[in-house]
Each structure stands twice: as C-alpha cells, then as structure tokens.
Design goal:
This protein has 307 residues and is an alpha+beta fold. The protein has 5 helices and 18 strands. It holds the Pfam family DUF538.
Length: 307
C-alpha cells in the first residue's frame, strides 16, 4: 500500500469519527415539517417556508420549529407575525401550548395560544386567551412565503409587534461587559438578555463557521450563557477545532491587562489576542473543513478554503 493511500484511509477514519462525535446533524427542512401538519388534520400553510430546523416528539406531540428569521405574512386581510422559534404541542386537529405566533387585532398584537381545525366548517380557529376567530381553511392551503408584511403594515399605519433588536445591539452589548464585540458573528437574528441574572440567548440566522486567526470556530444556531463583567459562563452553542477534534467552549474570560481573551473547555483553556475579536466577523466557508474532507485538507492533500 502506498504512503498516499495510507494517509487517505487514516484521514477518512479520523474524519468519520470526528463527524460522528462532533458534527451537529441537520433536521429536515420546511417541506417535511409542513407535510407533518396534514397528518394531524391541519393545513400545511400554518407555518411559513423559512423553516431552518425542527424537533418533534412523537410520544408527547411537543415540537419546536426554528425559522431562519422573524417573519410577517398576510393571510387574507390578517397580518401574522412569526418569531424565529415556535413551540407547542400537536394533537389531531389541534395545536395547544403555542408560543411564537402573534396576530394583529385592530391596533393590538395578540399571542396565539391554540389552533383548532374545523374541517366540517372549512375553517381554522385561532385562539388568543378567551378570544378566538375562525378563518377560511383555504387561506392556509399553500405554504406561505415571508414577504413585505412589515413594510405593508407600516404603509397602512399599523403598529408592529416588539421584536428583539438585531445583531448590532447584541454585539454592542458585549463591550458594556468588558468583552470584545467580535465574539459573536454578524448573523444574529434575535436575542434575549436578562439584566438581573445575566442570562442570554442568541439566535443566529443559521449555523456558522468563522476563522479567528488560525483557529476555526463553529457556532450553533442558538448560543446561550450567563454574562458578567469580563466573563461569559455556562456557555453552550460554540465549538472550536483542536487538532482533529471539535471541543465545546464552556467559558470566556477577558484579560485586558494581558490583551487576551481566554477560552475555557472544561479544565483546559487557551488565550488568544483580543485584537482578533475587535471586528464583528462574517460567517464564511469553514463548513468545508468538517468531516473527512477537512482532515484531508489539513494534511495538505487538498487546498484549504478559508472564510
């Protein structure tokens, strides 16, 4: 066996192991998620086309749908607002415990908590607490496209629901706590932050790979943690590549006196120059480096695609 063949086989074996242990599997996209609804007696068009991922528990009916971003849609003369995370419990003909969908009623936005199909009447009932309204089922026959709902609403003088601030505000929050803005990429879709506890949750438009110097970092769609001055603890949603392995970053600590930022992985840590995180990074082509192909590239057998 030639040396090149040996290297390729070794690379494939290591890459497969790494992919199995570290690469996040992608959930099916919108076609399958929307097609699940008719199986439960509900129209496909209740959820827009911008589904990025979803989870569904067959035993309990609990589901969570992640959209690529927040979304406004007109259903007939009714304007609906979809948050980037929609949760609830599905049973035949109904969705209960719903969160993440609002509808405009006059000049007020109300949260939809329950959806009930009435096939004998050809309607779908939307409940917001003790208020309910039935709309023609035909309004939801097709999977809707996120469009210019927000722009049209403003033109009509309608008040839009409160939306979490976009990435600029999320990144600008970090320096207030002694951390560089560039720890989070530019693809923030929404975020929440509790000033009392420091707990935060950031939703990105999609998973993301970023090079910081010679270090490749992978961001999951949701990044969570606890923020205090100069530090982030209880962190989840960020992985860094160490040799052939992807390791989860659990804490970040700024050392301004040393001009570094320390990344903690359990009891292991590594400090990088703080200057690498001054600018907010853009998501790049780092995805090409996960799995066996990434190992082969790192062995110099294929060119490395950098962001």
């Amino acid at each position: 066996m030639s040396p090149l063949t040996t290297i390729l086989l070794l690379a494939a074996a290591v890459g497969a192991t790494c992919a199995t242990s570290a690469t996040a599997s992608a959930a099916p996209l919108h076609g399958i998620a929307n097609d699940l609804l008719p199986e439960y007696g509900l129209p496909r068009g209740l959820i827009p086309e911008t589904i990025a991922s979803y989870t569904f528990d067959n035993d309990t009916g609990d589901f969570e749908i992640r959209l690529t971003s927040t979304c406004y849609i007109w259903f007939g003369s009714h304007l609906a607002y979809f948050e980037d995370a929609i949760r609830g419990r599905i049973a035949y003909g109904t969705i209960t415990g719903l969160s993440g969908i609002q509808a405009q009623k006059f000049f007020v936005w109300v949260s939809i908590t329950t959806i009930v199909a009435h096939p004998d009447q050809g309607t779908v009932e939307f409940r917001a607490g003790f208020i309910s309204e039935a709309l023609p089922e035909s309004d939801f026959a097709e999977v809707p496209v996120c469009g210019a709902g927000a722009r049209l609403a403003r033109q009509l003088g309608l008040q839009l629901p409160a939306v979490a601030e976009p990435n600029g505000a999320a990144n600008d929050l970090l320096p207030k706590y002694g951390l560089p803005r560039g720890l989070i990429p530019d693809s923030v879709a929404s975020y929440s932050f509790d000033e009392a506890t420091g707990e935060f949750e950031i939703h990105l438009a999609g998973t993301c790979y970023v090079w910081f110097g010679s270090h490749l970092v992978y961001y999951e769609r949701s990044v969570r943690g606890r923020l205090s001055y100069g530090a982030i603890s209880d962190l989840s949603g960020i992985q860094a590549k160490k040799l052939f392995l992807w390791v989860s970053v659990t804490g970040i600590v700024a050392h301004p006196d040393q001009g570094t930022v320390e990344f903690q992985v359990g009891f292991v840590s590594e400090a990088l120059p703080a200057s690498q995180f001054d600018a907010v990074p853009a998501c790049g082509a780092g995805a090409q480096l996960r799995g066996a192909a990434g190992v082969i590239r790192e062995l110099g057998l294929l060119p490395v695609a950098e962001a």
